[in-house]
Amino acid sequence: MKWQRLWVMLGAVALGAGAWRAGGWAGLALLGSGLVLWFLLHYHRLLTVMKRANERPIGHIGSAVMLHAKLRQGLPLLHVMALTQSLGERLSAPEAQPEVYRWSDPGQSHVVTEFEGGRLVRWRLERPADPDVQASTPDAH
């Protein structure tokens, strides 16, 4: 993660130098306005995801199986919240790593996710035992 931040900083410096070389102060002003636009778009997306999550119960999703199918390693927590449209039920301690969250559906199936550094590293689908299968198995005496 540290190398990625270093590359972003070097890219920003190179972009600033290119803007200065191409247009002087006007180039830097254009670069600055582009960065402000990017920030506002990101902020608007963040507020939209949080507003949708606020309108639903914590840890509730429509289908745990569909969420499980859409997850992939490296997704940020914000993206998972956008997929579920709700906040996850936190299972870990507030400052503990990894952060563990659970989302459950009406059928009592749930997806348990683990985030390290804000990125999804592991997840699993847990389903309740099927009562029809348990009823059809004979008891061992």
Topology (SSEs and partners):
Layout: H1 2-23, H2 25-54, H3 64-70, H4 77-84, E1 89-90, E2 99-104, E3 110-116, E4 119-126, H5 131-136
Antiparallel strand pairs: 1-2, 2-3, 3-4
Helix pairs in contact: 1-2, 2-4
Oligomer: single chain
**Tally of alpha and pi helices:** 5
Strand order of the largest sheet: 1-2-3-4
Mean pLDDT, rounded to whole units?
88
Task: Specify the overall morphology.
Answer: elongated
What percent of the residues sit in helical stretches (DSSP H or I)?
A: 40-55%
Q: How does the major sheet shape up?
A: 4 strands, antiparallel
Instruction: Report how far apart the termini are.
Output: 57 Å
CATH architecture of the largest domain: 2-Layer Sandwich
CATH class (first level) name of the largest domain: Alpha Beta
Order of secondary-structure elements? HHHHEEEEH
Instruction: Flag low-confidence runs.
Output: none
Strand fraction equals 15-25%
| Total number of distinct structural domains | 2
Structural class: alpha+beta
> What would you report as the Rg, rounded to the nearest angstrom?
22 Å
Q: Remind me, CATH topology of the largest domain?
A: Beta-lactamase Inhibitory Protein, Chain:B, domain 1
Number of strands: 4
